[in-house]
Amino acid sequence: MNELSVTDQETILGLLRLGWSQRRIQRETGHRRETIARYGVAAGLLISKASKVATDPSGAPDPDGPASAPAPSSRSRSNCEAHRPFIEGELAKGRNAVAIYQDLVEQHGYVGAYNAVKRFVRRLQPRVPNVKCRFESAPGQEMQVDYGEGAKTRHPASGKYRRPRLFVMTLGFSRHAFRKTVWESSSQIWCELHEEAFAHFGGACATIRLDNLREGVIDPDVYDPNLNPLYAAMLKHYGVVALPCRPYSPDLKGKVESAVGHTQRTALTGLTFESIEEQNAHLTRWNERWAFTRIHGTTRRQVREMFAEEQPALRPLPPTRFEYHRIVERRVHLDGHVEVDRAYYSAPPRYVGTTVIVHVGRLWLRILDLQTQTLVREHEITQRGKRRTHDEDRPKQTPPKIEQLVEKIARHGPACGVFARSAVDSYGATAARTLFGVLDLVRRYGPQAVEQACTVAAQANSLRYRFLRMYLQHHKATQPLIVRHKLVTPIEDYTEHLKLNLSMQGESP
Q1: CATH number attached to the domain at 142-313
Q2: In the chain, what are the domain boundaries?
Q3: Angle at the Cα of 226 from the Cα atoms of 224 and 232, rounded to 5 degrees
Q4: pTM, full prediction
Q5: Higher local confidence (pLDDT), 401 or 384
Q6: pLDDT tens for residues 277-307?
Q7: What is the chain's Cα-based Rg?
């Protein structure tokens, strides 16, 4: 009889301890079942055929067998029964069957299989069924929304097949759903999909239940979730209240979870599309032909019939769609303005040095209080480098001084006066620094050079101090240093003073 190597023997015994059948071990190792049984019997992991109680096909004891052999019981005794106190104690600590099996092998010399321990633990701890609560919604009360995965579709950029995101919104009462696939997602795309769904339904429900994805909830919390500001503004425009699910509780929106699974299994499984438009056309056709006319498994009613009952209860849509905008935080500078896209917009003086919320639209910009979220100032969008300043935001004490600076600059030439007046009209009270800069250029380069620079600036339509300074640096030389000045003592006076000191000390100069 050929003997297996020690490694093969340990492999067979280890698989037997895991509860593997002889047939499965044969497929895995390639050894015959007779060989596996021989090593298992020798290790006490299997019972030999000779030691089994012989019975005939009718179940009667074999007359040739021992007369005192007991009849087999309907439920065999577990080999873990001897370790019951230990197992019960470990279960009370919260340990699982795997950990208990490992401790039995290492500490108590257990040679049985893991499955025996698992079955014994199962008997000691019967499973308590997890009873679910079914949420019923009145018509127009709630809708649910979620993302899933669409079918494989050829990506237009890479040419490879990828799975786009599947957007599904379901009405809680009728189970009528809107379905659409998109390649990418963002806060604005998420909101636009909501608007398409509202238009598809012809209205919106009072509340919407969603998961804690970043497009909708930026800070999940059990008691105080923080919604994405753009998403919250869009829902407010439509009069809808968001109800984010508690973290790790997707069953609270089970209707849309079921709708996503139904769409994937029935409409998309096994299909491949060459474009996302083709997949959306397929979803629209399938939704109208099959999903909308089906008998729902829970309500036992047709979805179309229930939607006809729910649609009058939906909230009417506003006359205009939501206007999308960016939401950023900005700090109000010392000049009373915030900087957005290299342009400057005034805020009330009390906000200087504080942070405000800025909503940036396509044609407008709104400044909101950080704490109360109330509107404090609204501006039209201006060009880069320009300023928008409300008269109420200009400091009250500076206009007389500004006018004095303008008059002083205008004395050096008409172009200088035009430049100074234009700077005040554009920047208001904050133009003082620009005017002081012009006066400094007059001191360094002379009135004629600055007058010429202001003329060129007017022709170039650039009323910025930087333009004047760069023009003068490249086209004019600075004024020569003055040899004598009324505030500087002449060098001859220092010479006479030195001679006098030396004579008083008796030294020759």
Answers
A1: 3.30.420.10
A2: 6-48+79-124, 142-313, 326-392, 399-475
A3: 125
A4: 0.54
A5: 384
A6: 999 999 999 999 999 999 998 889 999 999 9
A7: 43
